[in-house]
Specification:
583 residues, alpha/beta, 4-stranded antiparallel beta sheet, binds 5'-O-[(L-methionyl)-sulphamoyl]adenosine
Length: 583
């Protein structure tokens, strides 16, 4: 029997309208005191080694997790590998190993990469683990128990590299490498195959309205905003039922359907349930669910913003609280692909730019709304200018022996830098000038600006703001040229110490705020400033307390040891250097 999914849906018995579940109480949501969050990266296919795109997904989640960790609350960060499905079965066969061996090897590569990249995951899940198989089978049984599944003959296109079913409208014809006509997915360009088999279908079509209501009631649930709008537009189109199993004879590498040995659970249902597995499903997930915050690439948005919330509603659970979407990395303007030989190996990038350098580059240049381009010169230029010169240079300048011979956090003088609100019109402000007050205002505002940008998934903007302040601080230092002041003159010494104090205060704040992005460099910076590990939370950030007439716990403290430049200056690749040289 040939029946497209949309038709299958119309044969269903009529049911009452489904409602979106109510939201969790505000105290459990992602902001405010006592908040909880269960951040996740997508789980990664093990058909090939990790590349820079995978690392980017993980770094975005890590930076957010680390930033939140600087405030009170409890959070987790889950990542892992997606190990079932036809393409893994095929990849194992191609590499001449068994699927379990192949998966263990590639999963290990992801685990190592993320550990090396300082991704602070609290759980690394593999979908081949018994705890996950149990969760998936329990989830399936719950779907079945609620009448959300039925068996039908499915006939249509299947794209193995994307592991998804496609409608006729999502398929086009293109010549393959040999010039033969070949059917491919419109979206990914990957080849598709006609599939005809008996499957279990999920009544996805019943969730069109509940999904729309859920989105309309939670305008910020998907960010950035253009992706939210995109999902709403998808929901205006036909939403056919979804095939959620494959015949076991075609796909053995997967979790069997409970009670039906002829079927294997569809790899995307298997994969999505990982978010519940790490929350402790089916036993203890209530402590964490629905405080789930998923970071996903734009190519898998439909699975996370339509299929997953619908599946959750179908078993009586809340949809995730937040879905953060990012775009893709290209290399010198081209899509990364094995055939083009331009896949960027993150481990080689760590060697070339250091771990923190590459983290900084990806998070500073990655704009979630649009695709971003990677090339070596861009990385080097950015890191040299922002980390080595601006930030590292600033630290150097105010800790150098000739300018700060006692190696301390010197005292601040209210007489040199008078509080602007206390000044009467026309009254002198000591030695500070208007730009200095602007600097103090910008830096004081920075922590709330940075947290705002992080929570709105605009980490690049947070870094842009920090960099702008670093530039302003360098301007402050340059403007007052403390190296020209004479230490022997008490009035000049007071001003010199104040300049150093203000600069060190700025650096302390940058160090605290940069921890989520460049943890090792921030640690080096804060240690040099003698800021103790227990003084590095956002609550400790209080900037320049002496300016507000309060005590500064750092004043007079001996600085930490000098362990060399904060960030190394990187060499431009030779070939390019020559290319850019004039005749
Ligand atoms: N296994 C699924 C996800 C299941 S989650 C329940 C999957 N895996 S993947 O390995 O193909 O992709 C994982 C993540 O890497 C996705 O978020 C994807 O967008 C991201 N990237 C893959 N290539 C990318 C780039 N070139 N650039 C940025 N990220 C990209 O999909």
């Amino acid at each position: 029997m040939v029946r497209p999914p949309a038709l299958a849906m119309r044969l269903l018995p009529a049911r009452g309208p489904l409602r979106p579940p109510p939201r969790a109480p505000p105290s459990r949501r992602g902001s405010g005191p006592g908040r909880r969050w269960l951040l996740s990266t997508p789980i990664f296919y093990v058909n090939g080694p990790p590349h820079v795109g995978h690392l980017y997904s993980a770094l975005l989640a890590d930076a957010l997790h680390r930033l939140r960790g600087l405030r009170p609350g409890a959070g987790r960060l889950a990542t892992g590998t997606d190990e079932h499905g036809l393409k893994i079965q095929q990849a194992a066969a191609a590499s001449g190993t068994s699927p379990p061996e192949h998966c263990a090897h590639v999963s290990g590569l992801f685990h190592d990469l993320f550990s090396r990249a300082a991704v602070s995951f609290t759980d690394f899940i593999r979908t081949t683990e018994p705890r996950h198989c149990r969760a998936v089978q329990h989830f399936w049984t719950a779907l079945q128990g609620r009448g959300m599944l039925y068996k039908a003959f499915y006939e249509g296109w299947y794209c193995t590299p994307d592991e998804c079913f496609l409608s006729q409208a999502q398929v086009t014809e293109r010549p393959d490498a040999q010039g033969h006509p070949c059917k491919v997915s419109l979206e990914s360009g990957h080849q598709v195959h006609w599939t005809k088999e008996e499957n279990y279908m999920f009544k996805l079509s019943e969730f069109q309205e509940p999904l729309r209501k859920w989105l309309q009631g939670n305008r910020h649930v998907i960010s950035p905003e253009p992706f939210y709008q995109l999902v709403l537009r998808w929901l205006e189109e036909d939403l056919p039922d979804l095939s959620v199993s494959r015949e076991r004879s075609r796909l053995q590498w997967g979790i069997p359907v409970p009670g039906d040995s002829t079927q294997t659970i569809y790899v995307w249902v298997d994969a999505l349930v990982n978010y519940l597995t790490v929350a402790g499903y089916p036993d203890t997930h209530h402590a964490w669910w629905p405080a789930a915050h998923h970071v996903v690439g734009k190519d898998i948005l439909k699975f996370h913003a339509i299929y997953w919330p619908a599946l959750l509603m179908a078993v009586g659970l809340d949809p995730p609280e937040q879905i953060y979407v990012h775009s893709h990395w290209t290399v010198r303007g081209q899509k990364m692909s094995k055939s083009l030989g331009n896949v960027v190996d993150p481990v080689a990038c760590f060697t070339r730019y250091t771990v923190d350098g590459f983290r900084y580059f990806l998070l500073r240049q990655g704009v979630p709304e649009r695709d971003c381009d990677y090339y070596e010169e861009k990385v080097i230029k950015l890191l040299n200018s922002e980390l080595a010169d601006a930030l590292g240079g600033l630290l150097n300048r105010c800790t150098a022996h000739n300018i700060n011979p006692s190696g301390t956090y010197p005292p601040f003088s209210e007489l040199c830098f008078r509080k602007d609100s206390a000044l009467m019109p026309g009254e002198a402000s000591g030695r500070a000038v208007a730009e200095d007050y602007q600097l103090v205002a910008s830096v004081a505002h920075l922590p709330s600006q940075v947290t705002h940008y992080f929570e709105h998934f605009q980490i690049y903007k947070a870094l842009e703001s920090i960099t702008a302040c670093v530039r302003q601080t360098n301007g402050f230092f340059q403007r007052h040229a403390p190296w020209k002041l004479c230490r022997e003159n008490p009035a000049e010494k007071q001003w010199l110490d104040t300049i150093l104090h203000v600069t060190l205060e700025c650096l302390r704040l940058y160090g605290i705020l940069l921890q989520p992005v460049i943890p090792a460099t921030a640690d080096k910076l804060l240690s040099r400033l003698a800021v103790l590990p227990e003084e590095r939370a956002l609550s400790d950030v209080a900037f320049l307390p002496r300016y507000h007439g309060k005590l500064c716990p750092f004043e007079g403290r001996q600085l930490g040891p000098d362990t060399g430049p904060l960030f190394p200056r990187l060499e431009m690749p030779r070939r390019r250097q020559l290319e850019t040289k004039g005749p």
